[in-house]
Amino acid sequence: MASSSEVIADTNNNNNNVTFWQRFVAKMVGVMLQLKKPAQDDPRRLIHSFKVALSITTVSAFYFVKYLFVCFDKNPMWIIITVILVSEFSVGATLAKCFNRGLATVLASALGLGCYYLVDSIMGGHIVGSVFLGTLIFVIVATMTYMRFVPQIKAKYDYGFLVFILTFCIVSLPSYRDEDLLDIAKRRVITIFTGVLMWILVSIIVYPIWAGEDLHNLVSKNLQKLGDSIQGFGDECFGTSEGEGSNKSNLQAYKSVLNSKQIEESLANFARWEPCHGPFRYGHPWKQYLKIGILLRQCACLIDSLTGFLDSTKTPSEIKNKVQETCIQISKETGKSLKELSVSIQKTIPPCAANPSIQKSKIVAMNLKSILKSGLWEGTNLFEDIPIMTVTYLLLDVVSCTQKIAESVHELSVQAKFKNKDSKVAPNYPNSPPHDLGVHHVITIN
Amino acid sequence: MASSSEVIADTNNNNNNVTFWQRFVAKMVGVMLQLKKPAQDDPRRLIHSFKVALSITTVSAFYFVKYLFVCFDKNPMWIIITVILVSEFSVGATLAKCFNRGLATVLASALGLGCYYLVDSIMGGHIVGSVFLGTLIFVIVATMTYMRFVPQIKAKYDYGFLVFILTFCIVSLPSYRDEDLLDIAKRRVITIFTGVLMWILVSIIVYPIWAGEDLHNLVSKNLQKLGDSIQGFGDECFGTSEGEGSNKSNLQAYKSVLNSKQIEESLANFARWEPCHGPFRYGHPWKQYLKIGILLRQCACLIDSLTGFLDSTKTPSEIKNKVQETCIQISKETGKSLKELSVSIQKTIPPCAANPSIQKSKIVAMNLKSILKSGLWEGTNLFEDIPIMTVTYLLLDVVSCTQKIAESVHELSVQAKFKNKDSKVAPNYPNSPPHDLGVHHVITIN
C-alpha cells in the first residue's frame, strides 16, 4: 500500500513537472510572439532601440579611449546614465526632458554651491553645520516634492523637480565631507550636458521620430475610424448583411477614440518643443488638434449610444422600412465625409474635397427630417418603434457633430496654411477665399 | 524732435517695464494660489512631502555620521539617490518600484560580473576586449529598450528594464578600467537595498497611503457623481427650477467619470502589491473594481448623450407633461440607488440597502413603458416630440445600466466578504443567503 501510494505520488510529481515545463514552454512561446507585436505595430520602435544602443555604445568610448577617460576626471559614468535616462522616443519628449534635466542641474548645482559657502563661512563647527544643512535639505525636499503635485508643474516640469532634488543632494552633501564641492558641481554639469547633447544629436539626426507627426497622424486615423464605425453601424442596423465580418470589426473601431484624450494631450505637449520638420512650421497650431480631438470623442460617444440600440432595432417594421434608405445614405455620406477629412489632414491639403459629402449628408438629413415630419407614425405600434426613432434622431446628431468637426478641420487648415499641392483637386468655390468654406454655408440641424 | 521721440521711447520703455513687473507679480500671486490647491484637494500630499523630506534627511546621516560614512566605503550617495527615486505616493506604487529596482539591480549586477569574467579570461588584449564589451552593451541595450515597448512589460516592469540597462552599464564599464568590479557590484546592491528598505519602512509605518483604499474611494465617489448627474438631469430637463445653480454643477459631475480608465487601472495595478490594510485582506478582488468602472463609464456615456437633448426638450409639450412625473421619479430613484451603492462600497457593507430604490426604479420604469405603450401620441406633433421620446428611452437604458452596476457591486461585496456591521441595517431578505440578492430578482428591461 505504502509503495503504491508512493508511486502515485511520484507519478503526480512527474505530471506536475511535465505540466510545469509544458506551461513554461507555452508561456515562453507566448512571450516570443508578443515580442514581435510592438515592431509590427510600429517599426520605428525597432529603429529607436538601435538608436539608443548606438548612442550608449558610443558614449562607452569615454571608458574605452584613455584620453577621453582622463578628460572627464576618470568618472564619465554620469554621461552614460544621462543618455540612458533622457533617451525618449520622440524628439519633442527628448527636448522637454533634456530641458528639464539641464535647467534643474544648473539651478540645483548653483543652490548647492550657495549652501556650501553659507555653511562654510557662517557656521564653523561640524554639528551646527550638519544641523543647518539637514534642515535646509528637509525644507527644500519637502517644498519641491509638494510642488510636484501642482497640476501645471506635474504636466511639464515633474522630471525637472525630481532632478533638482537629486542634484541638490548630490552637490551639497559631499561638501560636508570636505570633498571639492566646486569640482563635483562642475563635473556634474559637464557630464550631464555631454550626455544630453549626445542624445539630442542622435535623436534629431538619425531617423528622427516626431511627436507632432504622431499627433497629426493620430487625429487623421481617428477620423478614419469614426468614418468606418458610422458606415459599419448603418450597414449593421439597416443594411444588407454582405461582408458582415469586416463590418463588425469596423463598427468597433470608434472605441479606441473614446480613450485617446491622454495620449493626444501628451503628444501636443511634446510637439511644442519640436523644431520645424516636414510640413510643420514653428508655431504649428497643435492646440487645434486637441479641439478636433474633443469633437471626435463627442462623436464617438454618440456612436457608442447608437450601438446600444442595435439589438432592439433588428426586427423589421413599417417605420424602419420607410427610413431605412435615408439612414443608410446618411451613415454612408457622413462616413465618407469623415474619411475625406482624414485624407485632407493626412495630405495637409485644405478640406475642400470633403465638402460635397458634407453637403450631401446635410441634404439627406433634411430628407430624413421631412420623412419624420410627415404623418409617418399613423396607425403603427409606436412603442416598438421608439428605438428606431431614437436611432434616426441620434444619426441627425452625428451629422451636426460631423459638421462641427469639418469646421474645426477647416480652421486647422487655415491656421496651419495647408495648400493644394495637386492642381487637379481644385477648390469647389473658385471665387471665394478658402477660409470662407464651411463657415458661412453651414445649415444647422436641431 | 529727436529729444521728444526719445522721451516717448523712454516712456514706452517705462510702461513696458511696469507692465512686465505687474505681469510678473500677478503671475507670482497666481502661482501662490495654485500652490494651495493640491493640499486642499488631498491633504495627504502634504504629509507625503514631509515623509520624503524626513527620510532623505535621515539618510543624509550617512554623510553626517562618520562611522556610517566609512561603513559605506565613503560613497553612500546611491542610498540617497535610491530613496529619492523610489519615493512614490502610495505603498503599492512604492513596493512595485522597489521590486523592479531591487530585482533589476541584482540581475544586472550578476550579468555584469559574468561579462567581466568572460572578457577577462577569454579576451586578453584591450582592443579585442573593448570591441567585445561594446558589442555586448549594444545587443543588451537594444534588446532591453525594445522589450520596454511590449504592453505587458510597459505596464508593470518598465522601470525594472530601465534600471537593468543602467546597472549593467554602471557595473560592466568601469571593470574595463581595472576598477574592482566585485566591489562596485557589491556596493551598488548594498546601497540600493539600504535605500529601498529605508523608504519602504517610512512608507508603511509613517501614515501609510494605500493605492487600494484610493481605488475603493474613487469607485465609490464615481457612483456618487453619476447619481448626482442623473438626478441633476431629471431636475434640469423636467423639473422645477429651484436651486438650479447647484444642479448645473451636479449635472456636469459625470464628466470626470468618462476619463477615469487610466487612473483606475494604475491604482488596481499598485493595489495588488499591498499587504492587508483596513478592511482589505490579501487577495481583495481589485479586478472587480475595474469591471464596475467599465459599467460606470457606459452609464456616463448614456448621461452624456442625454445632456445633448437638454436644449431640444426645453419647450413644454403635451407628451412632455404626460411623462414628466414618471421621468422625474426615474431619475430620482436611479440617482438614489446609485448613491446608496456608493455608500455601501464606502462603508464596506453588502448593498442590501440599495435594493428598495432599485426595485422602485424598476417599477417606475415599467410605468413609463406602459405610458409609452398607451395611445399617448395620437394627434400630437410627432416630429417635435422625438427628442423627448429619445430621452425617455435613454432613461430606460440608464435604469437597466444601473441594475447591472448593482449586480456588479453585489458581486464585489460577495467576493470581498463585506459584512453588516450595523445591526440596524438588516438585509431585506433575511431567509436567503446574501449572494442571492439582486441576481435572481432582476427584471430585465428591453
Explain the overall architecture.
Helices cover 75% and strands 0% of the residues of chain A. In chain A, helix 14 runs antiparallel to helix 15. By secondary structure, the first copy, chain A, is mainly α. Chain A is elongated, with a radius of gyration of 31 Å. Chain A folds into 2 domains: 47-205; 211-416, Phosphate transport system protein phou homolog 2, domain 2 (Methane Monooxygenase Hydroxylase, Chain G, domain 1). Mean pLDDT of chain A is 81; it is low at 1-11 and 423-446. The longest helix of chain A is centred in the N-terminal third of the chain and has 40 residues, at 2-41.
Figure out the total of helices of chain A. Answer: 18
**CATH topological fold name of the largest domain in chain A:** Methane Monooxygenase Hydroxylase, Chain G, domain 1
Corresponding CATH superfamily of the largest domain in chain A: Phosphate transport system protein phou homolog 2, domain 2
Order of helices and strands of chain A: HHHHHHHHHHHHHHHHHH
Name the shape of chain A in a single word: elongated
Low-confidence segments of chain A, given as residue ranges, are 1-11, 423-446
| Most extensive interface, chain pair and sizes | A-B, 78 and 79 residues
Secondary-structure class of chain A: mainly alpha
Question: Could you estimate the helical fraction of the residues of chain A in percent?
Answer: over 70%
Note the gap between the termini of chain A: 85 Å
What's the count of strands of chain A? 0
Oligomer: homodimer
Largest sheet of chain A: none
CATH hierarchy: architecture of the largest domain in chain A: Up-down Bundle
Number of domains of chain A: 2
- The residue-averaged pLDDT of chain A reads 81
**Rounded radius of gyration of chain A (Å):** 31 Å
Q: What share of the residues of chain A does DSSP label as strand, in percent?
A: under 5%
Instruction: Give the class-level CATH name of the largest domain in chain A.
Output: Mainly Alpha
GO cellular component, one term (chains A, B): membrane
Organism (chains A, B): Arachis duranensis (Wild peanut)
InterPro entries (chains A, B): ALMT
Transmembrane segments (chains A, B): 46-65, 77-95, 102-119, 125-147, 159-177, 189-210
